[in-house]
């Protein structure tokens, strides 16, 4: 039996458009003799639909589109479609009104529903807000082949693989006990660096443990801050990868199930990713492209400072949308170095993008004049420095408003973590492209990019000391530890949840660690007001980051009794 994996890129809420995508792939599959077509989790509405699910008319429209799709599909093709199903017992049990479901469509009808059993509530997931958990193992029979159906998280609870069990049930084990011939998993699994390796190792373990072939179908594309990488794949009962779809693009892969052998046959296997930098690059390009297109922007604008962050964002935007759709704006101040201008122009020439130069010296004088009486008797300091950033932010927003461009902000994760950024200044924007990329990784990606293409990022951008250039001779390391030290401390704090003692034991100075903890906590109110940032790690400042702003937890007491020099981060 031929089975097709449809790795789709839905637009959230575009029910008719998403149904049309499924129909087109179904017609292609039927023409190739496919008997069963798999689509991702919630493929009809796109994942994650979030609070659209609280709108009864949205749920009703989904049901109507599902029925119509069933009627439109080719004959003799069974299709599994991700959708929601109403919980008829909710008014009796007090449960949620909906199930996260897969519908089996065949011969013009919706024949069966399968409900997701394990509902994640960690990181970006909040499925208990919307869904009731399914209670039964799900399977159906087609051409005398019993096929077990699981949905995303249902795969992620093998206690032997993880060394623990997060849920009471293991749906894969339950289906194995029922003796199904094949297990399919329909997923919308967001991208994080290195996650595909974990997925494959996990499925390989389960396949060998239960002597069970498994097909994994994943969504692809960017939806708000989330990026879905695709890389759908299948493993046979020995745990061998029998097919793998492309990453970061739509794809259709056909694989054969041998009923006599009760196993999958080898099909197309796209090579696995070997470079984290390459992976992140493709993820960010996809994230920018989809965010812009799905929000109906055709062009983007960003500030070009001649620094490495704006250079990388400009390169990503150009790859995502084309050089003709990217505008870089240079806004030199009296403190700007000559190389900041020359490096920015060299980058723009390498990329082939348009630039506009708007000096801000006169605007700075205007602010000085307006504030001269109020600021009389005070020294030049943080307020004046940040006015420069806010002038630039205003100019960029004016351009974005005037011409309908999407403004991309260029701050990296290291800066966002410790607040080395200016509210209503460089934080302005509709999308924060590298807000989940640490500064050291920014350098690494730029070096990778230059080594795999003709030099895109001017070498001097990579080698010079990073600086905000808000006062004469300023460099980042005047206010921050070296980025290698800062990023390692942040990795241990944010991702590994290490204590101060553990971080100090790893070789960091206690005063530096304390200071970084204070800065991290103090910047929370700024991150809450930041534009959405593309997520590429397992702990991003976004949907899954739920820290309080007003807090007096013991590790951050006396946060505000710190050197006034840290005020630069306001």
CATH superfamily of the largest domain: Carbon-nitrogen hydrolase
Please, what is the average pLDDT?
93
Radius of gyration: 26 Å
Strand content: 15-25%
The number of distinct structural domains comes to: 2
Largest sheet: 7 strands, mixed
CATH topology of the largest domain: Nitrilase/N-carbamoyl-D-aminoacid amidohydrolase
Largest sheet strand order: 5-4-3-2-1-14-15
Q: In total, how many beta strands?
A: 20
Task: Examine the secondary-structure arrangement and name the CATH architecture of the largest domain.
Answer: 4-Layer Sandwich
Top-tier CATH class of the largest domain: Alpha Beta
Can you give keywords for this protein?
seven-stranded mixed sheet, single chain, 18 helices, alpha/beta, 2 domains, elongated, 570 residues, 20 strands, Rossmann fold, Nitrilase/N-carbamoyl-D-aminoacid amidohydrolase
Tell me what the structure shows:
The protein is an alpha/beta fold. It folds into 2 domains: 273 residues, Nitrilase/N-carbamoyl-D-aminoacid amidohydrolase (4-Layer Sandwich); 220 residues, 3-Layer(aba) Sandwich (Rossmann fold). Helix content is 36%, strand content 18%. A 7-stranded mixed sheet has the order 5-4-3-2-1-14-15. The protein has a 6-stranded mixed sheet with strand order 6-7-8-9-12-13, covered by helices on one side. It has a 5-stranded parallel sheet with strand order 18-17-16-19-20, sandwiched between helices. Strand 19, helix 12 and strand 20 form a beta-alpha-beta unit. The longest helix has 22 residues. The protein is elongated, with a radius of gyration of 26 Å. The chain starts with a strand and ends in a 43-residue tail after the last helix.
